[in-house]
Amino acid sequence: MLRFAQFGAGRIGAIHAANLAATKDTQLLHIVDVNADAARVLAARHGAKVSTVSEVLADPQVDAVIIASSTDTHADLVIAAAKAGKAIFCEKPIDLSLKRVDACLAAVKKAKVPMLVGFNRRFDPSFAALQARVAKGEIGNVEQVIITSRDPGLPPISYIKVSGGQFRDMTIHDFDMARWLLGEEPVELFAYGSCLVDPAVAKAGDTDSAMIVMKTASGRLAHINNSRRAAYGYDQRLEVHGAKGRLIAGNRTATTVELADGNAVSADKPLYFFLERYAEAYRAELAAFVSAVQNRQPMPVGPADGRQAIVLAEAAVKSLRTGRPVKVG
Amino acid sequence: MLRFAQFGAGRIGAIHAANLAATKDTQLLHIVDVNADAARVLAARHGAKVSTVSEVLADPQVDAVIIASSTDTHADLVIAAAKAGKAIFCEKPIDLSLKRVDACLAAVKKAKVPMLVGFNRRFDPSFAALQARVAKGEIGNVEQVIITSRDPGLPPISYIKVSGGQFRDMTIHDFDMARWLLGEEPVELFAYGSCLVDPAVAKAGDTDSAMIVMKTASGRLAHINNSRRAAYGYDQRLEVHGAKGRLIAGNRTATTVELADGNAVSADKPLYFFLERYAEAYRAELAAFVSAVQNRQPMPVGPADGRQAIVLAEAAVKSLRTGRPVKVG
Amino acid sequence: MLRFAQFGAGRIGAIHAANLAATKDTQLLHIVDVNADAARVLAARHGAKVSTVSEVLADPQVDAVIIASSTDTHADLVIAAAKAGKAIFCEKPIDLSLKRVDACLAAVKKAKVPMLVGFNRRFDPSFAALQARVAKGEIGNVEQVIITSRDPGLPPISYIKVSGGQFRDMTIHDFDMARWLLGEEPVELFAYGSCLVDPAVAKAGDTDSAMIVMKTASGRLAHINNSRRAAYGYDQRLEVHGAKGRLIAGNRTATTVELADGNAVSADKPLYFFLERYAEAYRAELAAFVSAVQNRQPMPVGPADGRQAIVLAEAAVKSLRTGRPVKVG
Amino acid sequence: MLRFAQFGAGRIGAIHAANLAATKDTQLLHIVDVNADAARVLAARHGAKVSTVSEVLADPQVDAVIIASSTDTHADLVIAAAKAGKAIFCEKPIDLSLKRVDACLAAVKKAKVPMLVGFNRRFDPSFAALQARVAKGEIGNVEQVIITSRDPGLPPISYIKVSGGQFRDMTIHDFDMARWLLGEEPVELFAYGSCLVDPAVAKAGDTDSAMIVMKTASGRLAHINNSRRAAYGYDQRLEVHGAKGRLIAGNRTATTVELADGNAVSADKPLYFFLERYAEAYRAELAAFVSAVQNRQPMPVGPADGRQAIVLAEAAVKSLRTGRPVKVG
Questions:
Q1: How far is residue C65's CA from residue C2's CA, in Å, rounded to a whole number?
Q2: Which of A108, A277, A324, C157 is the most buried if burial means most Cβ atoms within 10 Å?
Q3: What CATH class has D122-292+301-327?
Q4: Chain D closest CA to A181's CA: distance in Å?
């Protein structure tokens, strides 16, 4: 039996709590949230207590914590949880500042607690199958990676303002995908960013459209394209080219229904957004965390992965600001 | 709170019990199975008691029963459960004999209990979406229905022998699909059956390959093709042609990964069999039952539907035996 | 150099003449048509003479004839051309009456002239590739064949009246496909026909919607579905199931463009009708004829194939009339 | 009647000559090639004379020339043909040096002769349909363009050495596609190039793998990925994202046949290389040239387009050499 406390009772918190409820040999003891109502509702739904951070950390029954609160709280919670000896499941990003990320990594290392960083896409059945087939050598040496990652619609400008910017908030997932698929660390990148969706984004100092290219030491290349708007839903595709062929992972749809009429042959749009597209991924991610803790095995995606994605995001920010390619690492 | 007892702790029973466990406002009180071990394991997993039929029927706490035991026990359990005033969720078929089916219908009618017959395919997201779009008139008046329904592999001959034959055991689902999609009752059918997969099937007096055509009063046409073997997995497709176009619902795959190499561009096979393909359908089916009972609404697929599928299966058996088309009542 | 005369300067005649013009080592000498204007235009376009039937048959320079005139003239022309020792390319059907077909076959046999019957679909790149892969054993023994064949729209009722009926006019192609793919001759069939598209068709004594099932001696099964209307264009698909898998040949589209928008992901409709879909097939068919004549090799589809398709069409007509399955001799 | 002379009797010359032979109201009078045998064979096939450059230019019967000889001869021939008042169909690139390209443009302008530059992809049915739909506003304002362009295999190193390098030889087509689809001129680009396919390419001073990003004045973004090797054939895809949706044009296949077996569901690889994939495009391109000359209409792709693609290629070369983004224009 693995006993949990969860920080955060918002949208993503609700998902993790529900997945935990469906996971054998686990129990959710505490919910913590600054929004007392949200905490109460979620706690009631899953038979947990509403608690404070210090109550959670002081509770010797708590084996593991899920950090699903707002980004600015992640680092403090990681450090505190590590000191308290709890296993840590932390939503991405660890923090928007690399310095604070490093403080987290140090705390986790010192406490020797296991930590998973919530790069949920690694657990998407299609993406995971693609990566496993790349790793197995099905397409030979990887040469190029192309990542399409486009959100269905712009978040509120208020969110944009505190998001850390498109590269740290959105592209961070794609940086993780690129590292995971390239089989080598990117050593340089170049980024273009534009504001094409809504001028309010530019006013807020951010971009809503981006294209990035990256290079590894041996010359492998990766491309990411991002947009905060895709009229047809959440566009999440991977494409890997190797010496022996190409692997593509496409979007998922709600149904396989196809209509042929006087206009066209038409099929479903992609699933709407991350809650729909990555529902299975969130379940598999939590299961992987639980299994790794229980079996004292390495985390499939750890703090160093969380750090490196931030490093790439910072490089992209610098590239955008300077208009120059930026060395990484 | 809707309280359940379940008859049957086998493969399909395990599915229903697990889905029930994930359904709010329900509780599983009893598990009944002639296999005591199976009953014990499933009951333990879901916090239910191992009980007998009479204990279940005598328990006033039990609101509803799930009948997922072997086919030959369905009719007696339906009748007994109806007399005991329980809502009934009955796996297909109600019975292999039309006479006994009619006895069940009479008992259910008399007792005025709600009853759902387990035609799970009606709850498959793709099939349900297709039917809803047909019903909405997206392709105009229905003209032709084509149903492909092929199992991945032959069941044991011991199963074949007690199955009631391919039409009653396998095609029965397709007869239900045809009725559901045609928008009119078939009034005549003609059936071919062959033994192409394994001569042992013919020895057991059954067929493993079949093609059926059906006609409604207004001349709408339907075709079903069946095989007990499909090397590539479970092939379950619907195609409906109407005055304004065509709707197709295809197979589902585990992933969207596609490999292009020196040989071909290749994608996943269809999901392996009904447990995989219809996992969502089983969940939705149980949810529909619970909701209909709780809200005292009509069942989406009721005893008359269960009967009519048997009527068509019997007609197909007769057509095969006589080599003639057979009128349907 | 192979020198041709062509009977028929209509739509299909224009196609054959153009294909001939693009075929090396061939020359078109004569065009014959009751419509003098059509003959003149086509002859002028290709540098041929407008001639009469007797002029063509008496011209020792003519090696081969293309019979692309109206169906009722086919048999007489075949017999006359055979007597005159010309190689014969005859559009389907040879004739609507089996007796006259047999007279043609006798004349061709006696004269020992090569004859190809215009079952163009055998030369469609996708259908030909599918059949070759079936023949190569890629899916093991054939078990079931499913043929979808639906025209984009109803021809004029005046055409329906002289067409010989849907089975002889339209399904005849599908009967040929079924024979070609089953690897065994059908020994029995059963046919349903309805009038769902336009009541005028029923008034003309014909059907516009049909479903047929067929059986071979070893129990292989085939299904054909036909409609005179498909709102989305010409629907021409083959599906063959064997012991080791399934081969499908789908429709062709003008482009590979796909639109994703707020409604759906939509692609091109199938190519509109036979002129578009089978353009390549018509070229390949003529090339195969020329090559077989020049190299004195057997015709890929000969008079016996033309006859057997008529036999099946007649059986279907009889099945529809009697409401019974019909043995095929 | 439009009378042609053609420079070049190689692979691409054979295609243009054959397409010309199938084009109404045209005649091929002369073939010129340094390879006398090749010239003789092609001239014989199409009833043309083998001639010299000066004979062609001095022949008043010649209305138009097709320049399909080696790249280093293009510029001189363009200038000479312009002076001689001939309409010019010139294979891409006009020249590898921008200076010489400008000399050509000046000559053409002065002579007021029509000139088409052979960017065949603009005439591919799928790409042309996609561009037309973008232009019609089907996806609103263009925001991002993604171009995949990968050859099936490495050309001989001897060819690489005289090709002008990957950007001028291969990417030049993609630069044209990007300009055509973006709806605005790129004002800056950044290029990565690697040698991943064969170290001999690096020895020859070239790259075999490349990724480029481009930006327009209003911030629209484009990405190109290139490889000299794709194990599965010629990979040629376009993807355009706009405010209202996404348009994709995919690869073409020889057939629509799909096999489902115990391993996968597999379809045809893309057509092998440009001769197969762009066969229709070459026909349409020549037809467009002939039609524009005959009707005195503007060329769909003119000398300025040929120049601008070279400008972008030179910018990419400079970016690769300096490791910096490069302003264009």
A1: 10
A2: A108
A3: alpha beta
A4: 16
D25 touches C: beta carbon within 8 Å:
no
Q: Do A139 and B262 touch (CB under 8 A)?
A: no
CA distance B179 to C283: 44
CATH: 3.30.360.10, 3.30.460.10, 3.40.190.80, 3.40.50.1820. Which one for B122-327? 3.30.360.10
Q: Decide whether D2-113 matches D122-292+301-327 in CATH topology.
A: no
- Report CA dihedral (B218, B219, B223, B224) to the nearest 10 degrees: 30
Whether B257 has its CB under 8 Å from any CB of chain D: the answer is no
Residues of chain C with C-beta less than 8 angstroms from the C-beta of B209? 143-144, 219, 221
Residue type, B24: K
3-state secondary structure of B46: helix
CB contact under 8 A, B266 and D270: no
Q: Could you please state the CATH topology (level 3) that the domain comprising B2-113 is classified under.
A: Rossmann fold (3.40.50)
pLDDT by position in tens, chain B (length 329): 999 999 999 999 999 999 999 888 899 999 999 999 999 999 999 999 999 999 999 999 999 999 999 999 999 999 999 999 999 999 999 999 999 999 999 999 999 999 999 999 999 999 999 999 999 999 999 999 999 999 999 999 999 999 999 999 999 999 999 999 999 999 999 999 999 999 999 999 999 999 999 999 999 999 999 999 999 999 999 999 999 999 999 999 999 999 999 999 999 999 999 999 999 999 999 999 999 999 999 999 999 999 999 999 999 999 999 999 999 97
Which tokens belong to B201?
A: 């099937």
Report yes or no on whether pTM surpasses 0.90. Answer: yes
The dihedral over CA atoms of D134, D135, D139, D142, expressed in degrees to the nearest 10, equals 90
What ipTM, to 2 d.p.? 0.95
Beta-carbon contacts of A81 under 8 Å, excluding residues fewer than 6 positions away, are A57, A65, A67, A88, A113
Classify B78 as helix, strand or coil. Answer: helix
Q: Which three-class secondary structure state does DSSP give residue D257?
A: strand
- The CA distance from C316 to C321, in Å, is 9
Task: Tell me if residue C110 falls in helix, strand or coil.
Answer: helix
Sequence spans of domains, chain A: 2-113, 122-327
Using DSSP, state whether C11 is helix, strand or coil.
helix
